[in-house]
Amino acid sequence: MSDTAEQGEERSAAEQLRTRRRAAQREARLVLSRAGWRGTIRERLTQLQEAAPEVYDLDEPADVYGDRIVAALEERVAALLGTEAAAFFPTGTMAQQVALRCWAGRTGNPTVALHALAHPEVHERGAFSQVSGLRPVRLTDEPRLPRADEIRDFPEPFGALMLELPLRDAGFVLPTWEELTEVVRAARERDAVVHFDGARLWESTVHFERPLDEIAGLADSVYVSFYKSLDGFGGAALAGPRTLVEEARTWRHRYGGMIFQQFPTALSALIGLERELPRLPDYVHHARVVATALREGFAEAGLPWARVHPGVPHTQEFQVWLPYAPEVLAEAAVRQAEETSVMLFANGWDGPAPGLSYTEVGVRSAGLEWTAADVRAAAADFASRMPGRA
Questions:
Q1: pLDDT for residue 173
Q2: Considering the entire predicted model, what is its pTM?
Q3: Counting Cβ atoms within 10 Å, is residue 227 exposed (0-12), middle (13-18) or buried (19+)?
Q4: What is the DSSP string of 218-234?
Q5: Residue 308 half-sphere exposure, CB side, CA atoms within 13 Å?
Q6: At what angle do helices 372-384 and 280-300 cross, to 10 degrees?
Q7: Are 237 and 75 spatial neighbours (Cβ–Cβ below 8 Å)?
Q8: Average pLDDT of the segment spanning 194-210
Q9: Peptide bond into 166 cis (omega under 30)
Q10: What is the mean pLDDT of residues 187-195?
């Protein structure tokens, strides 16, 4: 068989598994997260129609190029984050490029210091350098946020420090509040501005034991997402000083982000702020219950090696590591859901090393139905499905 044919078969098998996984999650009696974006178009529109009157007057005229409901959303975000202003963007990729481009113009330095696992470095195809003329430099590749000494000792100047809070690809990890304030202080000592990639900043209040506005107040600018934690249709906001936000609006237009009407996305964001934002602390606390029960369930099942990272989740999401190949774990996860109507692992698995894989686990409202005993039993059942353990 040719390499091309083998690759085609592998893609087909992977697609079949994804289809099975989606179907199994929809039908499962117990899931830890039932994110809205996994639903059908009809379900999404029905949810929007039912909840929208709670958050906005639907008899008002629709928005045109960012006025009315979009402006109301921007005001709400600025108030929550304690900033002078905020601007709506169709994507976080655009919002952060614009923010850092604006700061580069003000500082005179296009160099952005960030983590090697930061979203722009891993998931945006070199957008900073290829599109915005920015020069990213990596402070560290350790699975944690950069430390103050790494910022103070970095061997070249940079105009902006970008911190992803939480750092998703390292396990949704956060620094301590003391570490974060020291890092910000170190950047300021170098005359650098501080920008927070806060795609999931909303759920960081439990770990930091601080309100959103106090957390955001450490930075010069903050980006937040409306779909990752709040279950919106999409969209993002850039918040900060009014003069920066006004300049960002100009660049938003130049980048193609002035969309004619965005009321469905803005409505879904307002619904998320109203419904999901107050629930996030409950999700974080229950994620810690789930993480402990997973660890206990795997240990009781005699699984030779298993890790939950971080041991005490910093947010509502965390990683689970197991000593098997991704395809083995992915098949077991789907088969467990199909056969028991209990879906413990709803996301795919990645294998950074031979025989070692991890998946991301998130807890939303559906996850609150699980008891610790439910999690331990599901973990034991999952472990029994591993090769050589039947």
A1: 98
A2: 0.94
A3: buried
A4: TSSEEEEESSTTT--SS
A5: 23
A6: 40
A7: no
A8: 98
A9: yes
A10: 98
Structure confidence at residue 3 as a pLDDT band (50, 70, 90): low
Q: Which two tokens stand for residue 388?
A: 């050589």
Euclidean distance between CA atoms 186 and 176, whole angstroms? 15
> Mind spelling out the 3-state secondary structure of 250-318?
HHHHHCCCCCCCCHHHHHHHHHHHHHCHHHHHHHHHHHHHHHHHHHHHHHHCCCCCCEEECCCCCCCEE
Mean pLDDT on 251-264: 96
Count of C-beta atoms within a 10 Å radius of residue 129: 13
Helices (H), 52-117: 69-81, 92-107
Contact of 336 with 25, CB cutoff 8 Å: no
Identify the bridge partners of residue 362 per DSSP, sorted by sequence position.
317
DSSP character for 145?
P
Helices vs strands, H then E, count in the chain: 15, 13
97 contacts 128 by C-beta, under 8 angstroms? yes
Q: What is the DSSP string of 308-342?
A: EESSS-SSSEEEEEESS-HHHHHHHHHHHHHHHSE
How many CB atoms within 10 Å of residue 218?
19
Amino acid 266 reads: A
Maximal CA-CA distance, the chain:
64
* pLDDT, tens digit (0-9, with 9 covering 90-100), for 325-377: 999 999 999 999 999 999 999 999 999 999 999 999 999 999 999 999 999 99
Residue 4 has pLDDT above 80, yes or no: no
Residues 174-196 as b or e (16 or more Cβ within 10 Å = b) = bbeeeebebbbebbeeeebbbbb
d(CA 223, CA 149): 25
Q: How many other β-carbons are positioned within 10 Å of the β-carbon of residue 213? A: 13
Nearest one of 324, 304, 301 to 379, comparing CA atoms: 301
